[in-house]
Amino acid sequence: MVSEKTMAERVLALMGRPNNIRNIGIIAHIHHGKTTLTDNLLAGAGMLSEELAGDAMFTWWHEQEREREMTIYGAAVSMVHEYEGDDYLINLIDTPGHVEFGGEVTRAVRAIDGAVVVVDFVDGIMPQTETVLKQALREYVKPVLFINKVDRAIKELQLPPNKIMERLAEIVVGVNDLIERYAPEEFKDKWKVSVQNGTVAFGSALHNWALSVPYMQKTGIGFKQIAEIYNTAADAKEIRRRVWEIAPLYRVVLDMVVRHLPSPKEAQKYRVPKLWHGDLNSKYGKAMLEADPNGPAVAVVTKVIVDKTSKQETAIARVWSGTIRRGMEVWLLNANKKVRLQQVGVFKGIQKIQIEEAKAGNIIAISGVRDLQSGETIVEPEPDGSKPNIPPFEAIKHIFDPVVTKAIEPKDPRDLPKLIEVLKLIQKEDPTLKVEIDQESGQILISGLGDLHLEIVEYRIKNDFKVDIITSNPIVVYRESVKGQAGPVEGKSPNKLNKFYITVEKMPDELYWKLREKLLKGELPEGKIKKMNEDIIKHLMSLGFTREEAQRCKVIYRENMFFDMTRGIIHIGEVIDMVMDAFMQVMDHGPIAWEPCIGLIVKLTDAQLHEDAIHRGPGQVIPAVREAIKLAMKDAGLVLYEPVQVILVDVPPDYIGDVTALINSRRGAILDIQTEEDRALIKAKVPVREMIGFTDTLRSATSGRGVWYLVDQVYEPVPRELFDQIVREIRQRKGLPLDADIV
Ligand SMILES: Nc1nc2c(ncn2[C@@H]2O[C@H](COP(=O)(O)OP(=O)(O)OP(=O)(O)O)[C@@H](O)[C@H]2O)c(=O)[nH]1
C-alpha cells in the first residue's frame, strides 16, 4: 500500500511511531540457523534481493566468521514489515550462538524487548538454547519460538506428519520448561509459548517457508501442501520458488513478531524499573517508563563496532526516552564527560543512513564519538548544561568470568604502541576480553573465556589489524579462599605504631550464591560502598545479615565482603579508606600465589592508631592491614580453587568409549550420558587446566564428528596432590618466593 515511498522514507516515518516498532533479537544454539533466518527475513522485507538470501550471509561481517562458520559479532539490521494494513519497523540484532561469546548475547539483549528463539527440529533444545534464553528472560525480554530445519524431517528423515507434530510438541514443552524456570515471576505464565495462540512457528530457513496456526487459519495453507511440494519438486530451487508462493518465511515470522512481541512503549513500562535503579518519579524515570519522545534524552550503548580500516568506531545504542539529535551535546554518565554526537544514523537493511534525530524506542548508530563504551548511559544535560544527577543504567553483566590468560607481545618491539591501541579497540567491542599489564613483569596479559576465544582475538589482531604477535601458552586463572574461620589476627604497621585486628571467614555457600546473583542483577553495588542507603541495607539483610552488620558493610569486591565492626575508635574515619584499599589489594592478589580471592568475609574488629596523622599514612596502614588479612587467611586454612567447565559433548554413539576415555584422561568426570539413535550427548565436568587444546583432541578422537559446548563454569578446590605443583608453577611464573608459606 505504501510501496511508492522509498524504503528509507518508510523507515524514517516509522521512527516516530513507537507503537509500530519492535526491537528484537534472534537467539539460538550454534548452527541452529539464525544467520539463514536473518537473511531470509531481510530479503522478504525487501531489503536484500531474494536470490542472495541464504547464500550471501550478509550479516557475516568478519572473514574469520566465515572461516569458522560462526557468527561472532552481532550486527544490527532494520526492516519494514506490513501487518494488517500498517507498517512496522523491525530492528533486529543478530546474536552469536557460541557460548564463548556469551558476552555479546548479554549486551545484545539489553537493546531488545523480544526474541525469536530458534530451535533446530532435529537437534532439539541444546545447551546454548538454555543459556541464551536464560539471559534474555533475565533482562525481561519476551520470547516467541521458531522451530527450524523442518525440511529435514520431510526429506531426510521421512517422518510421517504425526511424528513431526509429536516432535514439535516436545520442543514446545521443552522451551516452556525453560520459561517456567527462568522467566520473571510475573511472566512465567503469560510468556509460555503455544502453537494455538500463534507464539510458535515452524519451517525451514534454508528453503524459506514457515507455518503458524494463525497463518494456517487465515490462508488455509497447511503442512500437507508443503509436504506435497517436497514430494514433487525437482530440486531445492523449485522448492524455494513454490513454498515462497504459499507460505513465505518472512511473513509468518514477522507477523508473529509484530503480533506477539511488545513495542518499546509497552516493554519499557516493565523493563525500565528492572534495568535502571533511579527514581521512577523523576522526569527521567517518567519519560523512560512512557518512552516519551518529549522527555529528556536517555540512550544506552549496547555495542561498539570498530571499522578495521578506518578504525572509526560506531556505537549501537537504544534510545529510552527523549530525542537524540545530530550535533547535540550529551553527558556520558560512566565516562563522566560531555561530548557532541557528531553523526546519528539508523539502519535500512544492513546499510546505515544518516539522520537528524531519533526518538525514544529506536535503535541508532552513533559515530564520530571516541570513548563510547558498551554499557555507557548517554543523557541530555540539564537545561543549564550540567550533568543530570541520575544513576547510569545498570552495568551489563556477563555470566562467565574470563579464566584463561595469555601473555602477548608484538614480534617487532616497535609495534608495541600499535598493539596497545588495537587491544583497546578490540576490548571496546568485546568487554568479556580482559586486558591488563602485569605490574611486576610489564607483560601484556589478555584473558578470555577459553582458548578458542583468545584464538579468535589473536586472529583479529594479526589479520584485521595487521600486527604480528607472539603469544605465550594459555595460563589458567585460579581463585584463592579459605576453609574455615580465624582471627582476630593482629597486623602491625612498619613503624609499629598502629595495629589492626582482622577476622576472616569462608562465606557460606548459600550466601555466596545469593550474593553472586544480587551482583549479577545489579541489586548490590560492586566496590567501595560510598553512600549506604536503605535499598542496599535491605538487600544485605535479605542475605541474612542483621541491620547493624549491613550498615557496617564497607566494600563488596570480587565476591568478597568487608565489614568495619569497630566502635568508637578515634581517627578511624581518617584511615578507613586505606583499610578498604588494603582489603581490595589482597582480594586482587591472594596470599597463596597472588591469584584473586573469592567467597571471603573479612572484618576489622579493632584497631590502635597513633594520634599523629604523620605516623598513620598509607605507607603504614596498608601493609599492616594486608598482613593481618593474609595471616588470618592462613590460619583459616588456605584453599586454591580452579575453574572447572561443565561441557556437553555431542558425538555419534560409536565414540562414547573414546570420549569417556578422553575425559577421564583429563581429570574429568562424566555426569550424564544420553543416547539417541544416531548421537550421544555426554555431559562432563573438566578442569579448565585440562581443557586447553580439547577441541583438537576431540576432533581427532572422533574423526572430526564430535563437537562440544560449554554449559556452565564453576570453581572447585584443586586436588591435594596437585596443590604444591600448581602453586609452584604460578609463583615461578610470577617471580614470587617459592618456599614461603604465604606471599
Ligand atoms: N536443512 C536445513 N539446514 C539449515 C536450515 N537453516 C540453516 N541450515 C543450515 O544450518 C547451518 C547453520 O546455519 P546458520 O544460519 O549459519 O546458523 P547460525 O545459527 O547462524 O550459526 P552460528 O552463527 O554459527 O551460530 C548451515 O549449514 C545452514 O545452511 C534449514 O532450515 N534446513
Output the structural class: alpha+beta
The CATH architecture classification of the largest domain is 3-Layer(aba) Sandwich
Averaging pLDDT over every residue, what do you get? 86
Q: Give the biggest beta sheet.
A: 8 strands, antiparallel
The total of beta strands comes to 33
InterPro entries: EFG_II, EFG_III/V, EFG_V-like, EFTu-like_2, P-loop_NTPase, Ribosomal_Su5_D2-typ_SF, Ribsml_uS5_D2-typ_fold_subgr, Small_GTP-bd
GO cellular component, one term: ribonucleoprotein complex
Pfam families: EFG_C (PF00679), EFG_III (PF14492), EFG_IV (PF03764), GTP_EFTU (PF00009), GTP_EFTU_D2 (PF03144)
Organism: Nanoarchaeum equitans (strain Kin4-M)
Keywords for this entry:
alpha+beta; Elongation Factor Tu (Ef-tu), domain 3; binds guanosine-5'-triphosphate; elongation factor; cytoplasm; 24 helices; EFG_V-like; translation elongation factor activity; 5 domains; about 750 residues; seven-stranded mixed beta sheet; Alpha-Beta Plaits; 33 strands; Rossmann fold; EFG_III/V
Question: Could you describe the 3D structure shown?
Answer:
α19 crosses α20 (618-635). With 743 residues, the protein is of the alpha+beta class. A hairpin with a 4-residue loop joins β31 and β32 (680-687). The N and C termini lie far apart (74 Å). The radius of gyration is 28 Å and the shape is globular. The chain is built from 24 helices and 33 strands. The strands form six sheets. An eight-stranded antiparallel β-sheet has the order 12-11-17-8-9-16-13-14, sandwiched between helices. A seven-stranded mixed β-sheet has the order 2-3-1-4-5-6-7, sandwiched between helices. The chain has five domains: 7-265, 3-Layer(aba) Sandwich (Rossmann fold); 276-379, Translation factors (Elongation Factor Tu (Ef-tu), domain 3); 404-475, Alpha-Beta Plaits; 480-636, Ribosomal Protein S5, domain 2 (2-Layer Sandwich); 640-723, 2-Layer Sandwich (Alpha-Beta Plaits), CATH 3.30.70. The protein binds guanosine-5'-triphosphate (GTP). Residues 28, 30-36, 69-71, 97, 148-149, 151-152, 204-206 line the site of guanosine-5'-triphosphate.
